[in-house]
Amino acid sequence: GNSVTQMEGPVTLSEEAFLTINCTYTATGYPSLFWYVQYPGEGLQLLLKATKADDKGSNKGFEATYRKETTSFHLEKGSVQVSDSAVYFCALSDSYAGGTSYGKLTFGQGTILTVHP
Amino acid sequence: GAVVSQHPSWVICKSGTSVKIECRSLDFQATTMFWYRQFPKQSLMLMATSNEGSKATYEQGVEKDKFLINHASLTLSTLTVTSAHPEDSSFYICSASKGTGDPGDEQYFGPGTRLTVT
């Protein structure tokens, strides 16, 4: 079956530090990959996505590249801000139409990020 | 655009009673809606997928008679937890998709409903 593994948290950084949150996946077909963010008290929001190998998703200074050879989609940001404190979820949506998981999101366990001034 | 609301945001009910949670897409038509359950400090677990006008598809291990899902219109889906017990206490989250559930479709998430069963 499909699965997503994220690096264990929580992650605590100082403002302007470099951020990496690792994400690896297993999937039956050719999945689309997503990073969702959940700010305190709010619902999940799409941060960025990539739908095929070597695509790079980017938004709000965050980037992630779809690496099929390493089945990874690591999230990076060069300089984090206090306002980036949130829970980050890596997810995949499988494209294998013959299976029962077509179009459904499979989430990683989430990584809590706290950024201090 | 693409706002999803849930009501109520939190609810406390007594064991044995039923609770209904509403999920609405406010500014778009949602062909597909999803219901998730999130335990403390854990990931989201997909419970079921519903398409407007048809029966929901439940994930393995989810009791369809306990968690009744109705997707009556393109803007409303409801989850009813029947005969609730303390172990049903959780955070329930819905999401909605404008498309047909294709892998690249974005899902728009509601803010969640905290259910506590006493």
Can you give keywords for this protein?
heterodimer; A: 117 residues; mainly beta; 6-stranded mixed β-sheet; 4-stranded antiparallel β-sheet; 12 strands; 0% helix; 49% strand; globular; B: 118 residues; 7-stranded mixed β-sheet; 11 strands
What does this structure look like?
Chain A has 117 residues and is mainly β. Helices cover 0% and strands 49% of the residues of chain A. In chain A, strands 2, 5, 6, 10, 11 and 12 form a six-stranded mixed sheet that branches. In chain A, strand 7 (56-59) and strand 8 form a beta hairpin. Chain A is globular, with a radius of gyration of 14 Å. By secondary structure, chain B is mostly beta strands. Chain B has no helices and eleven strands. Chain B has strands at 4-7, 10-13, 19-25, 32-38, 44-51, 57-58, 67-73, 76-81, 90-97, 107-109, 113-117. In chain B, strands 2, 4, 5, 6, 9, 10 and 11 form a seven-stranded mixed sheet that branches. In chain B, strand 4 and strand 5 (44-51) form a beta hairpin. Chain B is globular and about 40 Å long. The model of chain B has no long low-confidence stretch (mean pLDDT 90).
